[in-house]
Amino acid sequence: MRTKNVLIKKIFFYVFCIVTLGLIIFYHQDISHFIVKKFIYHDYAIEKINTNAYSLKRNFELVQITDDFIAKDKNHLLNIFYTILDSGKEEFYFYCDENYKECKEDVDSLIPNNSDIDSILSDINNFVHPYNSYKSINITSNNFGKISVSIHKQYSNDRISEINQYLEDIKKESITSTMNEKEKIKAFHDYIVNYTAYDFERANNMNSPEFDNSTSHTAYGLLETKKALCGGYSDIMSIFLNQLGIPNIRISADNHVWNLLFLENKWYHLDVTWDDPVTNTGEQLLIYDYFLIPYETLLTTDPIEHKFNADIYIEAK
Question: Under a CB-based contact definition with an 8 Å cutoff, are residues 57 and 51 in contact?
Fold first, then answer.
């Protein structure tokens, strides 16, 4: 009798296991999602994002700062990425809402092949302080809606310290306490134009390995070597404007970058690169064709190289 009872128990146990296994297989995705969400991700618990000294926390037409890191739709997704970049974090994660079925697809579309080329993220990068902007960004996702972001910044802490020291020296030499904001911007604009030469050699050899270590596309390269591409000019101006507390954006066109800033309740374009023209004689010129001009003037002065995506840089029109 005892042997029979043991056999019945074993049969019952095997049947139970088979039925349970069938249920798990049938409902695998839902059960797995429930377990991961409830017991591993704790209902998507995310701590409040910490920010560094260069977080600007500014809201723009395209993107705004958010404290909700469960992406609900494409616009919310962009706000999350903007908030992460603005914060200065190098590692962060967030989640897709269960009802946002296109979330993973939208995330993948932001950076094709995990590169930082031709992506709206490279434009969003222009809305944050240059010190918090990325040189490269890596995004991974899993089947449970967790999105992990890893950021390699454009400027190291050592480079930031050196740039800040350069700026303090420039301000002591060129800017006085009696100047208003427009006068300070002009004085800094003039100093940079007179200090810097456009890096024409690198511009003509962008894909040459000889220039792999060039820094002329950065503010540090401009200050250290006195040579710059448009990225160096626009970064140094943005850093200076942020020190003044003036809202600004770096605008990217196909082959050019310049500044947009908010002054006296209006948005103005400022292109230090094109106010530092390259001449056949090598003569240094200082012009003001692109100094604090409205959109209408930009259109009439150069409608080609300064053609930008108005759906992204909405304030610029």
Answer: yes
Burial class (CB in 10 A: 0-12, 13-18, 19+), 190: middle
Rounded CA separation 96/191 (Å): 47
Q: The pTM is what?
A: 0.87
> Cα separation of 56 and 245, whole Å?
9
3-state per-residue secondary structure call for 142-166:
CCCCEEEEEEEECCCHHHHHHHHHH
Residue 259 CB neighbours (<10 A)? 27
Dmax over CA atoms of the chain, in Å, equals: 110
Q: Determine the pLDDT at residue 123.
A: 96
**Which residues touch 55 (CB under 8 Å, ≥6 apart)?**
86, 87, 88, 129, 132
Instruction: Tell me which residue has tokens 């196909």.
Output: 254
- Cα(115)–Cα(246) distance, rounded to whole angstroms? 31
The pair of structure tokens assigned to 205 is 């050899």
Amino acid at 77: L
Burial class (CB in 10 A: 0-12, 13-18, 19+), 211: middle
Region 57-74 average pLDDT: 97
Provide the residue type at 254 as one letter.
Answer: D
**Beta-ladder partners of 91:** 150
Is the pLDDT at 146 greater than 50, yes or no?
A: yes
Confidence band, pLDDT 50/70/90 cuts, at residue 26: very low
Task: For residues 111 and 255, give the distance between their C-alpha atoms in angstroms, rounded to a whole number.
Answer: 19
- The pair of structure tokens assigned to 209 is 């390995």
